[in-house]
Design goal:
Blueprint lengths: L5 H9 L4 H12 L4 H8 L5 H40 L18 H15 L3 E2 L5 E3 H4 L25 E3 L5 H10 L5 E10 L10 E11 L4 H16 L5 E6 L4 E10 L16 E10 L1 H6 L8 E8 H9 L12 H4 L10
Helix pairs in contact: 1-4, 2-4, 5-10
This protein binds 3,4-dihydroxyphenylalanine.
């Protein structure tokens, strides 16, 4: 082992290939049982004059080896760091990783779009409960006891007597009038979920409506037509035309259904509008005097108009869907199709 001179050891150390190898050199020469250490232990046995010279020499050797070890250690560490940096080098030319970003459900987009348009037309938002009393859902809206909506087959009655899952958002008309306590104008929209015992390609048991109500002095059918036409053009594009057909709802008199020129074919005729060029999008009318009275307003002093539309129905028309259930199946292949769709069109 000690055939090497300490000078040779210094040379080897200067070329050691690894920190592990350095550790060995350290142990072998200056460790507890290293060559130099052992020699130093032997000094005691020497006569004083020899001891001095030998001690001096051993100290020099020890210093030289420690120095060589420290120098090589520093170099090896530097080399290691450089290699690490090289291995971890970032390739700034690689394309970025695109995070998965969610998107709003098409129905949420349509509902928000409708809300945006109506808020800009001066309406405020109003809400009511989804589990509603028969009074608000039916009676207060002048819906007679023999009306089909009041049959068990058509509505979801709950275990609490006199309560029903609201079949439309119209009960919010009464609640909003009550909250206004006779103040004018009342100008609200009420978006929300509604429930009916329906389930087929064009009906689901839970669906969304947006209700609208305006009550003020001197409100006429002209206000209704002007407002709803403005809304339709904001929603579907400025070239949209509207037409009103007379209809029947217990809570309005007269009652009108509004058709718009088909957004899919611009009125030319297509599958969505069944080649008529028109699609029905809402029910409306002048608020029935009984309904005004039930909301705490005097029909001799004020009048109003109301409207209600189905959000799913509008989404179907806008997107040309013939099966409403697609909107509720949460099939990503379908939903991701709306990824690049900005608004409604
Ligand atoms: N509530 C009606 C329905 O669910 C829709 C409706 C029609 C609402 C006429 C109205 C209205 O406010 O004036 O079928």
């Amino acid at each position: 082992m000690s055939e090497l001179s300490w000078q040779e050891a210094v040379e080897h150390i200067a070329q050691a290939a690894s920190l592990d190898e350095l550790k060995e050199w350290r142990a072998r020469w200056v460790g507890r049982h290293g060559t130099i250490t052992e020699r130093m232990k032997e000094l005691k046995a020497l006569p004083p004059e020899e001891r001095r010279a030998r001690g001096y020499e051993l100290n020099q050797a020890r210093e030289a080896i420690l120095e060589a070890l420290a120098a090589r250690e520093a170099t090896l560490k530097d080399l290691g760091e450089a290699a690490n940096l090289e291995a971890e080098r970032w390739d700034l030319t690689l394309p970025g990783r695109q995070p998965e970003v969610g998107l709003l459900h098409p129905l949420t987009r349509v509902r928000r779009r409708i809300e945006d348009v109506l808020l800009r037309l001066g309406f405020s938002l109003a809400y009511g409960p989804q589990v509603e009393t028969e009074w608000y859902n039916f009676e207060a809206l002048n819906i007679p006891p023999n009306h089909p909506a009041r049959e068990m087959q058509d509505s979801f009655f709950v275990d609490i007597p006199g309560m029903v899952l609201r079949t439309h958002t119209s009960p919010v008309q009464i609640r909003a009038m009550e909250q206004h306590q006779g103040r004018l104008p009342v100008k609200i929209i009420a978006p929300g979920l509604t429930y009916r015992r329906d389930d087929d390609a064009t009906h689901v048991p839970m669906f969304q409506q947006v209700e609208g109500l305006v009550v003020d002095r001197g409100i006429s059918v002209a206000d209704l037509m002007g407002t709803l036409t403005a809304m339709a053009q904001e929603l579907l594009g400025p070239s949209t035309k509207t037409r009103f057909r007379s209809s029947y709802f217990p809570f309005t008199e007269p009652s009108l259904e509004m058709d718009v020129t088909c957004a899919v074919c611009q009125g030319r005729g297509c599958r969505v509008c069944k080649d008529t060029g028109w699609v029905e999008i809402l029910g409306s009318g002048l608020v029935h005097p009984t309904v005004l009275r039930n909301g705490g307003y005097d029909p001799d002093q004020v009048s109003g108009f109301a409207f209600g539309m189905g959000v799913e129905r509008i989404a179907m028309r806008l997107y040309g869907l013939d099966d409403l259930r697609l909107l509720y199946q949460n099939d990503l292949r379908f939903l991701l199709g709306f990824r690049h769709q900005g608004g409604l069109r």
